[in-house]
Structures are given as C-alpha cells and as structure tokens.
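[step 3/7] inverse_fold.run input=structure_tokens len=504
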C-alpha cells in the first residue's frame, strides 16, 4: 500500500513538473522572441508532440527495467528541465539565432522525456498487482490535479516571486527528489540502489547550487543582452519588466521590447498628450489607459485646470515600481503620487464596462498590439466603448505604433477608430529611440485645430513642430487596410507581418 501511495504522489509531482517546463519555455519564447500567439502555440504543440514520442519509446523498455528507468528518467528530466530556463537566458544574451535552435531542441528533449514518465509509472503500478480500473483512475486523476496546481501556482506565485530560471530549477529539484524518494522506497527491488542513490544526490546538489546562483547568472546574461547595466527587473503575472541605466539614460523594457529612453521620452509623451490637451477648452477630467510609468500623467499634470486623472493600468507591479522607486518617480516628477491621480489596476476594457464616468480627454497609451489579448484593446468594440465615456467636445488620442516601420498596422488603427464612428486626425513624430512613431486623434466631431502654441513648458513641441506632425510624406501615406474586429484580429497579423519585415 505504501509503495502504491508513493507512486501516486510521484504522479502528482511529475505532472506538475511536466506542465511547468512547458509553461516556462512558452513564456520565455513570448518574453524574448515576441509575445505572439504563433510562438506560444508552436511551443505547446511541439512539446505535446514530443510527449507522444516519449510515450511511444517506453514500449522498448522491458517490464523488469521499468522501475529503474523511471527513476533515471526523473533524474534526467530534473537536470535538463531544471537548467533549461537558465541556459536559455544565457544563450539569448549572445544571440537570438542560437537561442531559437536551443529553445526548440530543449522543448523536444524535455517533452520526450516527460512523455515517458506516466506510461512507466502505470507499468510499475501494474506490477504491484494494482486493480487496472483503480490504477488508470488514480493515475489520470492525480496527473490532471498536478497540472491544475502548477497552472495556478506558476503565473500567480512562482514566476513573480522566483522568476523563470529559479522556477524551472525548483521543479527540477522536485523531479530529482521524486527519483531519490522512489529509489529509497523501492530499494529492495533495485539491484543498483546505491549507484542510483548516489546519482540522485549529485543531481540534487547540482540543482541546489544552480538555484542559489541562478539570479546572479541570469542577471549577468540580461546585462549582456540589454547592453546597459540592469538596475531593476521583475516578473509579474502579466509581463516582465527590466530597467537599465547607462550614464543619464534610463530605459524601460517590457517583455524585451523598449518602452522608453529617458533621453528622448519627452518627444513621445509630449506628442502623445499635449495636442489633445490643447484642443480641449476645459480638460478637467482625464482618463489614461495604460501609461503605468506615469510619464503621460506627468504631461497632463502640467495643466492647472486638470482636476482629476484616472489612470487604469493592468499591472500593479508597474505602477508600484514607478511610484516607489526614487529614480523612476523622479523621472515622472512624482506624478503617480499626486493627489489628483487615481490609480486603478484593472483590465481597461473591463473597467470601462463598469463605470459611467465621462472624460474630457482620453489618452490610450497601451503596449503595441503584438498579440490577441492586446489586439482586443485596439478593436472596433473597444473604441465604441471608449467613445461612450468621452464628454462633448472631448478628444481621444491613441498611440498607434510606427507608420513607417508598420504602416499596415498603423493605418488599421486609424480605420478601426473610423469604423467605430469616430472622426480622426492621424499624426506622427520622430523619436530617436524608436524612429518615426504614430498617434491618432479621434473625436465625435471633426474639429482638430493644430495648436498654434502650447500653454505649458515643453522640451520638443512648439507651433512649428506641431504643424509638421500632421503631414505624411509619400512613404508613410495612408493605405487601404481593414478595421480590427474581435472575430478576426487582423491588426495583430498586420503588426507581426510589418515588424517581421523589419526585425532581424
């Protein structure tokens, strides 16, 4: 009875570990290669395919060797799966090309080994004269329970607290612990028990050592990738934040993508905020969707007539970091601590559905539509929802990616706003860190007076620069593209294709 209980517990643990490696490698692919549905799906698909190969290979293992092979496989998946994330971080620091090859190789190897675990456990249990119906029922029940446990723990607890590298190593330690425990319980049936136990202790020791130094190693790898010293990094359930600093240049990266450089972010944020603010006679209530770094709020607060700012950002880690960090809060001029600013950590669409408030200016400073979860925030239904919260004579402004590098995506945003029943005024500005970047003004009316002056201090904008922003040269001219609906998410495809032609 004790033997069977040990194996059932092992099933729960190995199922948790197996799914964890799958989630970690899929998340790493999203973080480091771009958060696309294709990337995530390909990792999951390849992993499941590899598990099928592993299950097939178990038929070549003799019944009398099933127990010892199971223990050896646990040690093998513990060491390979455990160090997988750490190895991938180091590899990505050198180049993205070998990273891709190594990623898919590890997915194939780990998936194959994981696929061998459950068939071997079932064979060992069968050798213990377990009832077949009970055997199948218990194994599958604990297999699925283990998968459920890790699917909740990984995004909510492990990834934010431990990070990817240490999370993988933790599951590697669990795999190795299963091997050592199983070997001890079944030692009478293992002719080479001492050798197996020795290997188990060695693997546990190596994984524990790697766990202790994982953060230091991944930190060095990130410095190699980003080029500049990393001063802050975190994994939230929603995204991966990295802040770097070199001399006076502070940079924020989300999922490996540059969000701003302190040297030229004023160009971006002045262009995003000030034209809309100048076009509205009384911008007393302002809504910011996204903008958790507080830089857009900083520009809004320049206007003394502003009485209230509601900032809705999904990630509490983002807003907390830019509120509490001395260096980062100085950059946004302590905007997020201003009593006029009310921070709400929620999904923008969900929050808009729950409120009846109206705003004079709505600033949409969301991440680029690189995946379907973000693409829905650039859809016709979303913009119709936003428009319901726009006060009469109010203005909406949307950051809309690059009209030069991603022209189809940019003009799709324009088309989507117009399809939602809004009039638009597209414009662009050159930001050295990004290149040409695009924005779209939208409103219920057609009145978009180009500001002849700005009533607040500026670093970049004046009457001359504002006038040039609303003119598009031939190589950025409007294109005939489709609007973005929830049922097609064509914008995500445009975005991936456009930037795929640019990125190397």
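[step 3/7] decode complete -> sequence:
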């Amino acid at each position: 009875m004790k033997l069977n209980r040990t194996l059932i517990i092992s099933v729960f643990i190995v199922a948790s570990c197996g799914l964890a490696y799958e989630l970690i490698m899929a998340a790493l692919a999203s973080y480091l290669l771009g958060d696309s549905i294709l990337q995530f799906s390909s990792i999951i698909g390849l992993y499941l395919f590899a598990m099928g190969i592993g299950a097939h290979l178990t038929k070549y293992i003799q019944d009398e060797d099933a127990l010892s092979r199971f223990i050896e496989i646990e040690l093998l998946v513990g060491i390979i799966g455990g160090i997988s994330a750490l190895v991938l971080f180091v590899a990505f620091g050198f180049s993205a090309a070998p990273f891709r090859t190594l990623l898919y190789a590890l997915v194939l190897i780990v998936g194959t080994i994981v696929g061998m675990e459950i068939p071997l456990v079932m064979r060992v249990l069968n050798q213990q004269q377990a009832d077949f119906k009970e055997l199948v029922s218990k194994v599958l029940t604990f297999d699925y329970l283990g998968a459920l446990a890790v699917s909740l723990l990984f995004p909510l607890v492990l990834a934010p607290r431990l990070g990817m590298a240490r999370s993988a190593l933790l599951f590697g330690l669990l795999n190795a612990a299963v091997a050592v425990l199983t070997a001890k319980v079944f030692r009478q049936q293992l002719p080479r028990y001492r050798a197996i136990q020795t290997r188990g202790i060695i693997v546990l020791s190596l994984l524990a050592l790697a766990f202790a130094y994982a953060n230091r190693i991944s930190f060095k790898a990130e410095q190699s990738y980003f080029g500049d010293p990393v001063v802050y990094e975190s994994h939230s359930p929603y995204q991966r934040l990295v802040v770097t600093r070199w001399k006076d240049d502070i940079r924020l990266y989300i999922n490996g993508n540059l969000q701003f450089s302190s040297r030229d972010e004023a160009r971006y944020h002045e262009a995003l905020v000030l034209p809309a603010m100048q076009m509205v006679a009384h911008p007393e209530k302002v809504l910011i969707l996204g903008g958790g770094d507080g830089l857009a709020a900083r520009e809004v607060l320049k206007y003394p007539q502003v009485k209230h700012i509601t900032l809705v950002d999904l990630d509490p880690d983002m807003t907390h970091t830019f509120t509490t960090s001395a260096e980062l809060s100085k950059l946004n001029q302590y905007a997020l601590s201003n009593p006029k600013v009310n921070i709400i950590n929620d999904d923008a669409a969900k929050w808009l559905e729950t409120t009846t408030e109206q705003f004079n200016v709505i600033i949409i400073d969301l991440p680029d539509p690189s995946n379907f979860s973000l693409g829905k925030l650039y859809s016709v239904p979303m913009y119709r929802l936003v428009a319901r919260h726009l006060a009469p004579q109010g203005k909406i402004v949307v950051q809309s990616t690059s009209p030069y590098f991603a022209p189809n995506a940019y003009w799709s945003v324009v088309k989507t706003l117009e399809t939602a029943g809004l009039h638009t005024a597209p414009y662009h500005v050159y930001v050295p860190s990004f290149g040409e970047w695009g924005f779209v003004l939208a409103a219920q009316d057609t009145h978009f007076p180009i500001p002849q002056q700005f009533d607040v201090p500026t670093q970049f904008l004046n009457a001359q620069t504002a006038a040039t922003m609303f003119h598009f040269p031939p190589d950025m001219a409007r294109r005939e593209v489709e609007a973005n609906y929830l049922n097609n998410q064509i914008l995500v495809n445009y975005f991936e294709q456009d930037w795929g032609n640019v990125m190397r």
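[step 4/7] annotate
The chain has 16 helices and eleven strands.
The chain has a mean pLDDT of 87.
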